[in-house]
Amino acid sequence: MVRQCTNKIKCSQCQRRHYNVMCPELKPVVSTGSDKLVDKAVENSNGKFNTLANPTCSADVLLQTLVVYLYGNDGSFPVRALIDTGSQKSYITKEAVSKMSYEPIRAEDMIHNLFGGVESKQKHHLYKVYASSFQKDYHCSFEAYDQEKICIDIPTAISGPWTKEIEKKGIFLSDKEACLDYSASSVHLLIGADIAGATLNHLLDGAPDCYKMTAQHLQKSMYVDNCVASVKSEADLTKFINESREIMALGKFELRGWQHNSFESLRDNCNESQNASPILQDIPVLGLLWNIERDTLKIDVRNDTQSKSVKVTKRYILSKCHKIFDPIGITAPITLIPKILLQETWKIKANWDDILPEEIAHKFEKWDRQLHQLNKLEIPRWIQGHKNSKHSLHKAAMKAEGDLPPVKEATVHQSAHDPKNTSGCTLQ
Predict the structure, then answer these.
(1) What angle do CA 147, 142, 223 make, to 5 degrees?
(2) What is the distance between the terminal CA atoms of the chain, rounded to a whole angstrom?
(3) CA 167, CA 171: separation in Å to the nearest integer?
(4) How far is CA 421 from CA 156, 255, 269, in A?
């Protein structure tokens, strides 16, 4: 559904396609709260933890919220929960802790890595939380840290004709059905990646014996809410898809949006399933673009041309670097250039929002104008094994400049496993 969305995001500051909070022209906000924000990392034994990946609030975007029941000595109590896989820990509001009379297990000091790279050191108490689904047909317990306020109020889903469509698909919105004593928009429980991931692993570990092979394949293929896997034949592909759906259905999960490079099976699935995604040529896979026809991978570089009014600062260069997501490192020689320029800004002790010298700005602008050429760079998804390989060993220069050193050939065994059919899907 995300790929079919026609909504176009536009910044109100510079009119380009990104959220307002990500605009490089946005003036920095100075915090005056009781919790002091620090620019430098504060080391401690507990480490640093990311929290709440998306702090913005919009009535047009539905976040993963649901109503659950908390259990304590005084009975059960319904609260609104938010599933946030961008948070490494789970949290519960102090108000909910007081309501349920939970006793703290221990206290911990930790550093929150917030949006924009801001770090905040806080002390939290850890509690054992007992919860169940809204229908009370599933119960669990997990550990969560207390927090005065998890996030701003998140609006519930707006009623309309589309609500009947999702009801036909078996999607139940507990936010609309529950009668909460608290405000309907308040969130009192945040379920982080530590609990969401453990729930999925528990489901796969307890899969029926007839699905053990597929469950083990899923455990090796899941990346957050995406599944990327390879199989040997179309028969194995069909079996993997069907059994994966049945396993996930046991935990009320749904693997949908299947895309793979077996066109015959893909068309059959599209005819059988109403929820199947249309056949697309370029499929987003873990931040990359997978061309299912040529079976190649490439970097998704958005054609965001630099505005003439934008001032080249150290902050702007860093934001441009972070827009290039390359988990396999094929663009390393290209992304090295702005990193070297950042090193030059450190030498002149430039602040984050200082206008950089013309020499550095000119080099960066030249690199930025040529950045769209990365869209033409493709590599094969499956590089077949060869009997010979070449190895080299040489020194690296101070600025990571490379050369062509002597090479040595070595014999290796060719892989007999050729995963011709690759599939990917999204967990909902």
Answers:
(1) 95
(2) 11
(3) 5
(4) 41, 18, 15
Helix, strand or coil, per DSSP, at residue 176: helix
Whole-angstrom distance, CA of residue 388 vs CA of residue 418: 18
DSSP state of 355: B
Distance set, CA 138 to CA 156, 205, 206, 233 (Å): 23, 17, 15, 37
Which H or E element spans position 425?
strand 421-427
- Radius of gyration of the chain measured on its C-alpha atoms: 25
Collapsing DSSP to helix, strand or coil, 231 comes out as strand
Residue 240's Cβ-side half-sphere holds a number of Cα atoms within 13 Å equal to 25
State residue 364's pLDDT score: 93
Q: What are phi and psi of 408, to 5 degrees?
A: -130, 130
- The identity of residue 299, as a single letter, is I
Report residue 150 as tokens: 């998890």
Q: How far apart are CA 106 and CA 89, in angstroms?
A: 15
Question: In whole angstroms, what is the distance from residue 35 CA to residue 28 CA?
Answer: 17
Q: Which of 51, 50, 56, 59 is nearest to 11 (CA)?
A: 56
User: E strand or H helix at 248, and its extent?
Assistant: helix 234-250
The angle formed by the CA atoms of residues 416, 418 and 419, to the nearest 5 degrees, is 145
User: Hey, is 94 helix, strand or coil?
Assistant: helix
- The CA distance from 264 to 270, in Å, is 10
- Helices vs. strands in the chain: H and E counts, helices first: 10, 19
Tokens of 409: 């050939």
The first and second tokens of residue 42, run together, are 């504060």
The answer to whether the beta carbons of residues 203 and 253 sit under 8 Å apart is yes
Q: How far is it, in rounded angstroms, from Cα 95 to Cα 180?
A: 14
With 0.90 as the threshold, say if the pTM is over it: no
Q: Which region holds residue 269: left if phi is over 0, alpha if psi is between -120 and 50, else beta?
A: alpha
* Confidence grade of residue 43 (pLDDT, cut at 50, 70, 90): very low
Spatial separation of the C-alpha atoms in residues 74 and 79, rounded to whole Å: 15
pLDDT in tens, 142-154: 899 999 888 877 7
The enclosing H or E element of 146 equals strand 139-147
Contact (CB, 8 A) for 97 and 89: no
Would you state the structure tokens that stand for residue 192, as one six-digit string? 């982080």
